[in-house]
Specification:
The complex is a heterodimer of chains A (217) and B (344).
Chain A (H helix, E strand, L loop, with lengths): L2 H38 L9 H16 L2 H7 L1 H8 L5 H25 L3 H9 L4 H35 L6 H11 L4 H29 L3
Chain B lengths: L5 E10 L2 E11 L4 E5 L6 H8 L7 E6 L2 E2 L5 H8 L2 E4 L11 H11 L7 H11 L15 H13 L5 E5 L7 H18 L2 E6 L2 H7 L2 E6 L2 E7 H6 L5 H8 L7 H4 L11 E9 L7 H9 L3 E11 L2 E11 L3 H10 L4 E6 L4
Helix pairs in contact in B: 3-4, 3-5, 4-5, 5-6
Classes of the chains: A mainly alpha (217), B alpha/beta (344).
The complex binds adenosine-5'-diphosphate and magnesium ion.
Chain lengths: 217, 344
């Protein structure tokens, strides 16, 4: 195997890691507060406001309904504004995050909703404020589920980052498309697929291990 | 100081059109253990949630240590809740924290400095007999141990009042006894006022000094436990609740009961004696003075609220007015349940 191919794949792997890690981080920073808001504003929640909860849910679902490839295209002007260019790894992080935020928000919402409301009552009886309830009950109790949800999100992002290759994002997907699909270089394509499989397997294994480590019931 | 720890005045609570609590009033003095009993749906949990300031009543006042909690603003409520400990039926421990971590939470919430927490946690663990288990996760504990953690957590901030909602209902009988003993000990040693809610009369008999019977949102009985248990007549609801733990006429005998005395037959009577009278050898005296035979068919002498209490179903031969008068000297509430004709 040529030095060139190894360099290509190593670089692409690094780019994919950066894209997935950064957009994953932004998915948590954006998605978790959204999920908390959706849970808190439900009826019987920490700050009930069901109409607002429904509206927020609708916005989240609309974002999730837009096919990623379309999101990529319509976000080009926004990406240019934020990153300065619409090409490359950094540019791909903008549409990837925007797709991942509502995705993770819905998954996180499910985990947060599964927290026993009696635990919330217990902390209310201790004189806990809403913020204390979020910090000491909702997030810690949902954490194993949140980690599992993040794992799924990261793997979905890995797939989506390949599609972002279509706008020149770089990364493993881009490599597979350019060498495999456009130049019929099956060797590079197969290698990229193997690396992607290992990449996804590592994320899943690490996610499972962390989630189990955090679970005490 | 004669300020009651709890004063409930004309409290009502509605859910839509359904009245869960209707004009409920009672008070609890310092150091009392008040048992609140009632059937499922009687309004017990609704009452406790109002007392713990988790819900507001629709009408009436609730004074905790003289302070009306129904008109307190949110900030005041948060401070007040720290004066009240809550123990739950299903423990409600955080699975994300260890035993020590769970006990630490109310301390953190109350702003106890980090450095002062370990000592307080160790004291509380020792109090509930779990010193060796601080580093375990709740999932590693038995039900009884979880409830001990629940109690330690409720006591963390030295509450003035402990509220227990069916605290032993999820536990087996042996563990129930251990938890009730622990609550009684805490009551004695810390002088803590306790309100406990239950649907089990047995729990009341064992530790409640005072008893409130709730039925469909109304108070039907409110007196010292012993007075209610020993009273000549009780409301139908109380009677039904009491019958769970009271001696009953054996079914085979009940089928043979007739209303009129029968020659050569026996009378079946119910005798209840509270306090020192419970120890008197009444039945032996009866035998000596009247030459009749008296046999205890069911029941015996137990303790209620720390006082001896006898509750027995007794058969007596040759039952007559004199014997009745003799026995009612000891127990004015004596009841003749019926007569059993001799079988020929
Ligand atoms: N949140 C609620 N919404 C509507 N009805 C309720 C609610 N909580 C309790 N109730 C009703 O109020 C009555 C008393 O309930 P509760 O206080 O839980 O009784 P208990 O604890 O004695 O079983 C019941 O009829 C119950 O259905
Ligand atoms: Mg209840």
């Amino acid at each position: 195997m040529s030095r060139l191919i190894i360099d290509l794949i190593a670089r692409a792997t690094w780019e994919t890691t950066i894209m997935v890690a950064c957009s994953g981080l932004l998915a948590v920073l954006g998605g978790l507060p959204l999920a908390l808001l959706m849970v808190a504003m439900r009826r019987g929640g920490l700050m009930p406001c069901p109409p607002a909860a429904r509206l927020l849910g609708l916005v989240v679902d609309i974002l999730r309904a837009i096919p990623f490839i379309i999101l990529l295209v319509i976000l080009i002007p926004v990406t240019r504004m934020i990153v300065g260019t619409s090409l490359g790894t950094a540019a791909a992080i903008v549409p990837l995050s925007l797709a991942a935020i509502p995705y993770f928000a819905r998954i996180a919402e499910v985990s947060l909703r599964a927290v026993d409301p009696n635990l919330v009552d217990a902390v209310r009886t201790m004189g806990g404020t809403r913020w204390m309830i979020v910090r000491h009950v909702l997030i810690p109790e949902a954490l194993p589920g949140l980690v599992a949800g993040l794992t799924v999100t990261l793997i979905t992002l890995t797939g989506a980052s390949a599609m972002a290759g279509a706008v020149g994002a770089g990364g493993l997907g881009d490599l597979a498309i350019r060498y495999g699909y456009q130049r019929f270089n099956t060797q590079v394509m197969s290698l990229v697929v193997v690396v992607l499989i290992v990449f996804v397997a590592i994320i899943q294994a690490a996610g499972n291990a962390l989630s189990n480590h955090l679970r005490h019931d | 100081m004669d300020v009651n720890v709890v004063d409930v005045r004309h409290v009502s609570r509605r859910f839509g059109g359904h009245v869960a609590l209707d004009d409920v009033s009672f008070s609890v003095a310092k150091g009392e253990i008040l048992g609140v009993i009632g059937r499922s749906g009687a309004g017990k949990s609704s009452l406790l949630r109002c007392l713990g300031a988790l819900d507001r009543p629709d009408a009436g006042q609730i004074l905790i240590e003289g302070q009306d909690i129904t008109t307190l603003p949110q900030a005041g409520l948060v401070a007040l809740r720290r004066r009240i400990g809550f123990v739950f039926q299903h423990f409600n421990l955080l699975s994300s924290r260890t035993v020590a971590g769970n006990i630490s939470l109310p301390l953190e919430i109350a702003g106890v400095p980090r450095a002062d927490r370990p000592q307080r946690i160790a004291e509380l663990l020792a109090l509930v007999g779990l010193s060796a288990h601080g580093d375990k996760w709740p999932a590693q504990l038995s039900g009884g141990q979880k409830q001990r953690v629940g109690i330690a957590r409720a006591l963390a901030n030295d509450p003035a009042l402990l509220l227990c909602d069916e605290a032993t209902s999820a536990l087996d009988p042996e563990t129930t006894t251990a938890i009730l003993d622990l609550l009684a000990e805490i009551n004695r040693e810390l002088g803590l006022t306790i309100i406990l809610i239950t649907h089990e009369m047995d729990v009341i008999r064992r530790i409640a000094t005072h008893l409130v019977v709730l039925d469909q949102g109304h108070i039907v009985e409110n007196a010292p436990t012993l007075a209610i248990m020993g009273a000549a007549t009780q409301s139908a609801v109380t009677e039904a609740l009491l019958s769970e733990t009271q001696p009953q006429v054996p079914p085979a005998l009940r089928a043979r009961l007739v209303a009129e005395p029968a020659p050569d037959g026996w009378a079946i009577i119910r005798i209840r004696l509270a306090g020192e009278a419970a120890w008197q050898p009444m039945l032996s005296l009866l035998g000596q003075q009247y030459g009749v035979e008296a046999t205890v068919l069911q029941g015996g002498t137990t303790e209620i609220a720390g006082q001896p209490f006898a509750d027995q179903i007794v058969s007596v031969t040759g039952y007559c007015a004199e014997i009745h008068d003799f026995l009612t000297q000891f127990d004015p509430s004596l009841k003749v349940l019926g007569h059993v004709p001799a079988d020929h």
